[in-house]
Specification:
Blueprint lengths: L1 E3 L7 E4 L4 H13 L1 E7 L5 H12 L3 E4 L3 E7 L9 E3 L4 H10 L7 E4 L10 H9 L4 E3 L8 E3 L7 E5 L6 H10 L6 E5 L6 H13 L5 E3 L3 E4 L9 E3 L4 H14 L2 E5 L11 H9 L2 E5 L2 E5 L7 E3 L7 H9 L3 E6 L11 H11 L3 E4 L3 E6 L8 E2 L5 H14 L2 E3 L12 H8 L1
Parallel strand pairs: 2-15, 3-14, 6-7, 10-11, 18-19, 22-23
Antiparallel strand pairs: 1-23, 3-5, 4-5, 7-9, 8-9, 11-13, 12-13, 15-17, 16-17, 19-21, 20-21
């Protein structure tokens, strides 16, 4: 349990954490490449540590220091030294290794925590099966754990749904480049979380591999290709920085966050635009962004591409005047927790006026009704960080299981202390 007390507005400058999504992808690209890759300023949170452990189980040599990760790639073939890969709570690692694991030269079993094993992987398994993979479920149909057999990927065409997450398509497009013949991926519905797919294809180009995205409906991947080892600097993370920006919004203070790329393809950069629409002032100066809080007002927004912003945006909406409506949030049930239900439940404990239906979350902002409470985190890092920032504005906020922030932002509490 961690207690967060109310603080007065003050100006603070902090460094953005390294990007979670970029580090995870760079680790895999380095493992698939032929030669030594050096990842500089990586994020070394729980998900990355689980990815590294899985890559080492696949026979990849990984050397970690606080400043860099050095990977000796295997050129698209894995030689496992262990049969079982444990991904922890990392959905990205589970989805990505479901495809990449097909390039192991012996069978492997991939699974995670009880919560991870409740997250659906039917689409990605079905996709790689269409490309020639042989995978079997070891528990419930459509869910981890799975056993992957050493088939590689033949190539061809795979059709799957992307409404739950774009991770399925990221997984397939990364591994499709190593198939024995070209691959075409078809999205049967509207892909959500598109910016994360953009990160995947942009980083593929960085590591020497190409794919053509035709309006998120058809993706053509020439194959076989080869990933190239390289020296790679991980950019700052807008997802984690959103909680630092949120401090400025709810306190009416000024927060400067250093180490961000104004031209990044990260979708969660949009949080800055949303805060501006709610009444904050945003100003860029090179790689530093300054956010100053104002009189917050409600807004309506489609969240299908930026689901990780729902928890911090829900907090901002609770401190705003007027009604906010966040639409297309149904797929959040498949995250580390059911984030819509989690935020509704915990914000109500604080006195907020929140309700939802299957696809929409509505918040009637009445900041005068808010007060501190003992709030659950559901072992979900983004729930914990959102509610902690809310505590800076109301005080007497008690955060259960505060250690869950280690999944993406291991020094979050140290960063928060800079404001206190």
């Amino acid at each position: 349990m961690k207690t967060v007390e109310r603080i007065p507005p003050r100006s603070v400058t902090v460094q953005a954490p390294p990007a979670k999504a970029y580090t995870l992808r760079a680790l895999l690209f380095g493992a698939l490449a032929d030669g030594k890759s050096v990842l500089r300023r990586p994020l070394l949170a729980d998900d990355q540590k689980n990815m590294i452990a899985c890559l080492e189980a696949l026979g990849i040599s990984v050397r970690v220091t606080p400043e860099a990760v050095t990977i000796e790639g295997a050129g698209g073939r894995f030689h496992p030294v262990a049969e079982t890969l444990f991904v922890g709570d990392s959905g990205v690692t589970m989805n990505f290794l479901t495809s990449a694991g097909c390039f192991a030269d012996r069978p492997i079993v991939v699974g995670g925590t009880p919560r991870l094993n409740e997250r659906p992987i039917k689409e990605v398994v079905g996709g790689v099966r269409q490309l020639g993979a042989r995978i079997e479920y070891l528990g419930a149909e459509g869910f981890p754990p799975i056993r992957i057999h050493p088939t590689g990927l033949d190539g061809g065409r795979a059709a799957l749904h992307g409404a739950v997450t774009s991770q399925y398509f990221s997984s397939l497009v990364i591994s499709a480049a190593l198939a024995r013949s070209p691959v075409t991926l078809e999205c049967l519905d509207a892909m959500t979380e598109r910016p994360y797919f953009d990160i995947s294809t942009a980083m593929m180009r960085d590591f020497g591999v190409s794919a053509t995205n035709r309006d998120y409906k058809t993706i053509d991947v020439p194959a076989p290709q080869r990933y190239l080892a390289r020296d790679y600097l991980v950019e700052g993370d807008f997802s984690s920085a959103s909680f630092l920006f949120l401090v400025a919004a709810v306190l009416g203070s000024t927060v400067r966050v250093e180490g961000l790329n104004q031209h990044s393809v990260q979708g969660d950069k949009r949080f800055l635009d949303l805060l501006e629409r709610m009444g904050c002032r945003v100003r860029w100066d090179g790689t530093t962004v300054e956010v100053t809080g104002g009189n917050l007002v409600g807004l309506e927004e489609d969240m299908s591409d930026v689901p990780d912003l729902v928890p911090p945006l829900a907090v901002a909406a609770a401190f705003a005047r007027g009604e906010s409506r966040f639409t297309r949030v149904g797929h959040l049930v498949h995250k580390e927790s059911n984030r819509v239900v989690a935020m509704e439940t915990e914000l109500r404990k604080m006195g907020a006026h929140v309700w939802h239906d299957q696809e929409t979350m509505t918040i009637e902002g009445r900041p005068e009704d808010l007060q501190g409470a003992t709030v659950a985190t559901y072992n979900d890092h983004r729930i914990a960080m959102s509610l902690a920032v809310a505590g800076l504005a109301v005080g007497d906020q008690h955060i259960e299981n505060p250690g869950c922030v280690a999944k993406s932002f291991p020094d979050f509490w140290e960063k928060l202390a800079q404001f206190q």
